[in-house]
Amino acid sequence: MTFYIISISLLAFVAIYALMGVWAERKISALIQDRVGPVETGKFGLLQTFADIIKLLQKEDIVPTTADKVLFTLAPVLVFTSVFMGFAVLPFSPAYISSNINIGLFYFMAIISIEVVGILMAGWASNNKYAFLGSIRSIAQIIAYEIPAGIAVLSAVMIYQSLNLQEIAFQQGIYAKSDIYFFGFWKVNTVGGFLSWGVFQAPHLFVAAIIYFIASLAEANRTPFDIPEAESELVAGFHVEYSGFKFGALFLAEYAMMFLTSMVLVILFFGAWYSPLPNIAKVQLAEWTNGTYWGIFWILLKTLLIVVLQIWIRWTLPRFRADQLMNFCWKVLIPVSFACLFISAFWKLIVL
Amino acid sequence: MESNFLPSDYFPIVLQLLAAIGFVGLTMLATHLVGPKRKTKDKLETFECGIEQQGDARAPISIKYFLVAILFVLFDVEVIFMYPWAVNFREMGMQGLMEMFVFIGLLLAGFVYIIKKGALDWE
User: Fold this and answer.
1) Is residue B10 part of a domain?
2) N or C: which end of chain B has fewer CB within 10 A?
3) Which of residues 140-169 of A touch B (CB under 8 A)?
């Protein structure tokens, strides 16, 4: 009954990850802006976010008089639940996956879309102009960027011929059952390492990975796609009226979402839990550095690197305007992702 | 790679659902019961940068958002049709590919029409 343990440990993992993520974000932003960031609580300020969450738990639970009370309470539950359920199908290593189902990726795309309903509920129920505008903007952005994300994912699925995330993970390294080729000409089943990762199996998959990464930034409402919570005009977006743990749940969901989309990016394109080190002649690095515990290590390392990249982007790029955002999605990302899809089809039928 | 999947494979998802709802629900209830309750009229008013609340938030919004929503429905349904095809298209060969490309082509023609019509131009 390992999945009992996995489900419960995932909850603890998400909570601790979110707290450390907030700390990392503050430290990285401090580094980028030449400040020191939190230093008082604990070594290097490590306990700062734990102190913050304890403070948050003690706060008064405020529900505005004009708000729709039922929807207002339900929205954080829905947002957090939908994001957390996405973790159910992600393989952490060859042996650790909560629910190994054959439509894993489809389930993932479906379940994280439910977050949109929670955001609409939060914005509508608050009965606040900022919250309402923020939620409407957020929804328009998330649903628009879901289309290129879906098509980019599909062009990877066409290469792997599977929707099971564990099977997709297996096809990117030395444990693969089918033949894998480096850009279609060099068989790398025994070499492994980064050479057999998804992005190197076909030339256009790197473009698809970038499209998925951009779309995942938009879906997590991260800068440069953060007009939903543009603090200089909308105060805080759809969660203006939230306080106490209701705000905490929305916050947890936002950071969990960052991790979730980064992890799917790693699973689809960057070799999932495979080690980046290839076998070189007698030095069997790939053989030595793959396995159950190595798998957990590599996938967490790769995912956290992408999370750091997301944080870095937040503190580097300015915010998009609403019209630039929509133009970029519909006139750049969607045509390019369709091109990826067509190349995938011909690649799989003709080149391989 | 044919493998059999049982309904019980989905059980961890139900468990995950219960864990998530239980965690958020219980913590929210606990903080609601434990936290201070000092309700005043001004505190419970909707936040509007400190000024008196002007009217309601149930205001009309730009029609562009509805256009985006409707286009999303069209394109996302299209993408859903493509999931089963993407997994099996190799067995269907060139003919299946061409059939799917006709389907995608028709939708892309609609997409070009939308762009030419200026439905996606935000001023």
Assistant:
1) yes
2) C
3) 140, 143-144, 146-147, 150-151, 154, 157-158, 161-163, 167
pTM of the model: 0.89
pLDDT band at B1 (very low <50, low <70, confident <90, very high): very low
Is residue B44 in some structural domain? Answer: no
Task: Write out chain A residues lying below 8 Å of B3, CB-based.
Answer: 102
Work out the average pLDDT over A99-116: 85
Please classify residue A243 by burial: count the beta carbons closer than 10 Å to its beta carbon, then call 0-12 exposed, 13-18 middle and 19+ buried: middle
Answer yes or no: is B17 within a domain. yes
Quote the minimal CA–CA distance from A28 to chain B in Å.
29
Residue of B15, B83, B89 with shortest CB distance to A7: B15
pLDDT for A2: 66
CB contact under 8 A, A60 and B104: no
* Beta pairing partners, A182: A186
CA-based nearest residue to B17, from A87, A251, A350, A127: A87
Q: Which two tokens stand for residue A319?
A: 């915010």
**Helix orientation angle between A244-269 and A129-160, rounded to the nearest 10 degrees:** 20
| Contact: B44, A65; criterion CB under 8 Å | yes
Residues from chain A that touch B57, judged by Cβ atoms under 8 A, are: 126-129, 131-132
Residue B13 falls within a domain, yes or no? yes
Q: CA A37 → CA A34, A130, B113, distances in Å? A: 9, 29, 51
In this prediction, residue B123 has a pLDDT band, given cuts at 50, 70 and 90, of: low
Q: In which domain, by residue range, is B26 found?
A: 2-38+61-117
CA separation for the pair A208, A351 (Å, rounded): 18
Residue B6: both structure tokens together: 């049982």
Number of domains in chain B: 1
* CATH number of residue B84's parent domain: 1.20.58.1610
Residue A299: exposure state from Cβ atoms within 10 A (0-12, 13-18, ≥19): buried
Name the maximum alpha-carbon separation found in chain A. Answer: 72
Residues A270-298 pLDDT 10s: 888 888 887 777 777 777 777 778 888 88
Residue A13 clears pLDDT 80, i.e. is over it = yes
Write out chain B residues lying below 8 Å of A144, CB-based. 68, 72
